[in-house]
Design goal:
By secondary structure, the chain is mainly β. It has helices spanning 38-42, 104-107; strands at 12-19, 25-29, 34-37, 50-53, 62-64, 70-75, 81-85.
Length: 120
């Protein structure tokens, strides 16, 4: 099984092992447990198919910065966490988009929160 993309993501691998009396698929979990799923049966999965379930990321939570401004911390493409101004975040945003989100480091008035400029 592949390693999780982030520490908050857990992948679950299932194998279709048959159908129950209602037509729902019987699924064997990678730890040996068994579950059933009607929606996977309706989607066309059949006996012997393997299914990889990856839970949806948790929605971002708005918090207050030390400067008092509302911020949301989103993961970057590199997996780092970056505070962005909450007003630039919409429902469904789960990763930093530099075309859409404004880094809070640009607007923060609390100088102790600003990263040092190491360009000399």
């Amino acid at each position: 099984m592949e390693e999780p993309v982030s520490k908050d993501e857990r992948r679950i691998e299932l194998q279709v092992v048959g159908n129950d009396a209602t037509g729902a698929l019987q699924l064997r979990h990678d730890d040996g447990g068994v579950a059933t799923s009607r929606c996977l049966a309706d989607a066309g999965f059949k006996d012997g198919d393997r299914v990889l379930l990856v839970p949806a990321p948790a929605p971002p939570v708005e918090v207050k910065c030390r400067c008092g401004a509302p911020i949301v911390v989103l993961p970057t493409g590199a997996g780092l966490q970056m505070p962005v101004d909450a007003e630039t975040v919409q429902a469904g945003d789960v990763r930093v988009d530099v075309q859409k989100h404004r880094s809070h480091f640009v607007t923060c008035t609390a100088t102790e929160n600003k990263p040092e400029d190491k360009r000399g």
